[in-house]
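Consider this pair:
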Amino acid sequence: MEPTRRNAVLLLLGSTFLFQGILATESSLKPGDIVVISVTNVSISLAWGPADMNGIQYNFSIIYNSSDTSGNKTAVSNFTTITDLLPGTNYTIAVATIIVNGTRSDPVVRNVFTKPNAVTNATLVNRNTTSITLRWNRQSDYKAEYRYKVETIGDPSSNSTVNDESTTVVDLNPGTKYTFRVLTLTGDDTASEPVTVSFTTVPKAVTDVIHVNHNTTSITLGWNRQSDYKAEYRYKVETIGDPSSNSTVTDESVTVVDLSPGTKYTFSVFTLVADGTSSGPVTVSFMTAPNAVTNVTLVNRNTTSVTLKWNRQSDYKAEYRYKVETIGDPSSNSTVIDESVTVVDLNSGTNYTFNVFTLVTDGTASDPVTLSFTTVPNAVTNVTLVSRNTTSITLRWNRQSDYKAEYRYKVETIGDPSSNTTVNDESITVVGLNPGTKYTFRVLTLAGDGTASDPVTVSFTTVPNAVTNITLVNRNTTSITLRWDSQADYKAEYRYKVKSFGNPSSNNSVTDESITVVDLSPGTNYTFSVLTLAADGTASDPVTVYFTTVPNAVTNVTLVSRNATSITLRWNRQSDYKAEYRYKVETIGDPPSNSTVNDESTAVVDLNPGTKYTFRVLTLAGDGTASDPVTVSFTTVPKAVTNVIRVNRNTTSITLEWNRQADYKAEYRYKVETIGDPSSNSTVIDESVTVVDLNPGTKYTFSVFTLAADGTSSGPVTVSFTTGKEAIQFLKHPQDISGEVAHYRRTTLLDL
């Protein structure tokens, strides 16, 4: 008993005993009423009063009996504890005062039950949201009259008394902890010590357990709170599958992890109260996402279909299927069992997004493996050569039938050098090429993501470099020979095309850097275009030159007239005479000269007398091309001598002397014609002559001509003299003759 309570009881008993003592003094020594201090299942503690009467200490006799046992004891005070009693037994207890002579006063009697033994093993038999059923074992001292009081402490609280060793406490609140005190009651309702247990009613189950999310190794669930939700509620989630697991959470959701991909799991969600009491399960089944496929690749595509292939997942299962979503225009869905699919009926040059899902048996899908591919756009048409030069080629083409604004064009240039270029328009100029080189061009339509159409392939050759330095090697009246230098980019396969424009025209191809064009007309201007030809016939820009065949030469160049300073020539026209022909007359001598005339004659003037000149008469075509020359040589008339005098004479000879010309030349000779009887001619190299074998006394005419080297004669200087008569004799000594000759000479000159 608690100290405070015990002191209060003793105080009460003291007061009672004091009051009874006062009465005892006036009557007998009978003890006061028995007060039960405490009772257990094997003892009863009693008190009575008073313990001291008239200052005398008395002893007390205590006799106790039950139907099965009896006993007695003596107490020296007004308090005692009777032990070794039987549980749950009704004892009659008599307390009498023992007087000194051994007599006893009248007893005070009271019936008191010991407490019955408590029940054992109070257990929970069943419970739900509003009731709890308990069961317990009978006590070892069980008696048929025993009943059981069940006190329910909680919200709501209640008491109930039952005869059996079980009870169902009803009208409870869900998920609420209750303390139950089970007491054994004897016939007078003496209660055993309580057996206390606590149990919680089943909380209400959650509602609407749903699948929130999942992946290959986890599933997230969510649910609604119960109508009786309490802040201390927790949730137990049992996962049944491979692997199985349990987890407890405080929120209305859970993510169950470490699961196997593509596996079906059963989830039981229990509401747990603070002591772990669980609601009934709400059970759902969901599957983890299977692993996604790997390495989705493009196997093939054309303008209307795309074929994909992928690798199985690491967790592959025979029941797996594959869903392929095609997002685009048009969109489609298809399900296949193999690791490949061909999506058909697509539009050309269109970008499609493909989502490949692994599907398990209930349709649960893996995360998609997403790729985008574009169908092949239609190819361009009619790729043509627009222009080209030595280092570039310009191409043009027609748009495809499925043209889209985002289309671009890739032009692959295959050759030396190779290149790739992307353009937006339907034409391109490929630059940086080498001259005279064949290139293959692949024109591909590019969709927005770079997907290329089938190529349209054409081959063209850049213009080779033109030849340089075309020169005239030779020409005659019917042919012209040309030569040129190789190009800087010379290639062994180069050929040359030579076009001749004129009358006649011709085309010729040669492999060397020279050509002789034959069968031409004399004196005709021809245009020659020399083109370098690449192997496929691609021609360089022409290098054009103009040359004229040699005209036919004139014929029959003759001397018409000449004097000391001029020579006049004439000739005949050639057989191919043309109105534009002119004539060049080259004068070779001292001085030389050139002159051009339109007619078939010329007078070359300002010449030196007695000089031999070579004249080259060339026919000139319109551009000045000259024929082979017709060469003739003529000498101008030398100047006549001056001052022809008679130096001496006799009967048979006359000696003449003259002065040299102003244009004297060492090769000059002199022709002296003697006219008389007899006549004679003689040629001398000096400026004097003695004409002999003349007749005496005969008059002679002498003509002195200057002769050039070729015999060209000046005009004559003519004098007349008479030979001497035979009567004249010279008697003087020869050394004196000279004076007389001089005298005679003077006489003769006077006579003349």
